């Protein structure tokens, strides 16, 4: 799952991004900002994978703001001015969307971001520590079959055991590598452990996990 924010001083532009983002199942648009400084401050305390960033803004340009971001943050510039494209790519922007942009073009940029995230070496650490009522438990990614969300709790199904933690899927997805994918709003599965894919479910060992229509195209 990609996490993102959008920063643009035009209200209509933010509404377009919100509308497009709602149609991309692997993208979670956490917040939008018409004030560039507020958006930058949000990202410092709650980092996201991707920022949709306007260039021509009154207080600080998107070009200058992009130069202040952490190097691992992906940036997709959104602007009505094609003259900024070269400068944008000089800053290693992932993509450049020229307004008005279609849903298909927006999806293309999101897919590029997801592909880039999957290539990052941070995902090869091999494990994560999960907080439980009994303390921190080490969970190896290779042993984690799937996760099921129930309210503010998540059950992690491992080889031969279960781990229950008080956490939302949003929080968990930030800890897991991108080969963990949603098949349903309540299920997150290890794509590498899927043994069979059917129309409405996937099978991992003896478990059959539902596939909802919203997530059916991303297995």
UniProtKB/TrEMBL annotation:
Which Pfam family name is an example for this entry? LytTR
Q: Domain (HTH LytTR-type): give its ranges.
A: 130-219
What SMART domains does its record include?
LytTR (SM00850), REC (SM00448)
At what positions is 4-aspartylphosphate found? 54
Keywords, comma-separated and alphabetical: Phosphoprotein
- Domain Response regulatory stretches: 3-114
- Transmembrane domains' residue ranges: none
Keyword Phosphoprotein in the entry? The reply is yes
Keyword Translocase assigned to the entry: answer is no
Task: Please state what the protein is called.
Answer: Response regulator transcription factor
């Amino acid at each position: 799952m990609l996490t993102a924010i959008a920063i643009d001083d035009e209200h209509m532009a933010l509404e377009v991004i919100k509308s497009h983002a709602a149609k991309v199942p692997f993208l979670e648009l956490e917040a939008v900002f018409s004030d560039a400084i507020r958006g930058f401050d949000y990202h410092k305390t709650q980092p996201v994978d991707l920022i949709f960033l306007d260039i021509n803004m009154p207080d600080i340009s998107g070009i200058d703001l992009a130069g202040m971001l952490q190097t691992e943050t992906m940036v997709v510039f959104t602007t009505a001015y094609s003259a900024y494209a070269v400068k944008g790519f000089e800053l290693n922007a992932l993509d450049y969307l020229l307004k008005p942009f279609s849903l298909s073009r927006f999806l293309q940029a999101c897919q590029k971001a997801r592909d880039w995230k999957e290539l990052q070496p941070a995902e090869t650490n091999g494990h994560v520590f999960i907080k439980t009522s009994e303390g921190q438990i080490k969970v190896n990614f290779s042993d984690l079959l799937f996760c099921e969300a129930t309210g503010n709790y998540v059950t992690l199904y491992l080889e031969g055991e279960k781990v229950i933690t008080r956490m939302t899927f949003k929080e968990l997805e930030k800890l897991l590598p991108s080969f963990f994918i949603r098949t349903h709003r309540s299920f997150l599965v290890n794509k590498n452990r899927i043994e069979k894919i059917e129309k409405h479910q996937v099978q991992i060992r003896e478990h059959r996990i539902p596939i909802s229509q919203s997530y059916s195209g991303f297995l």
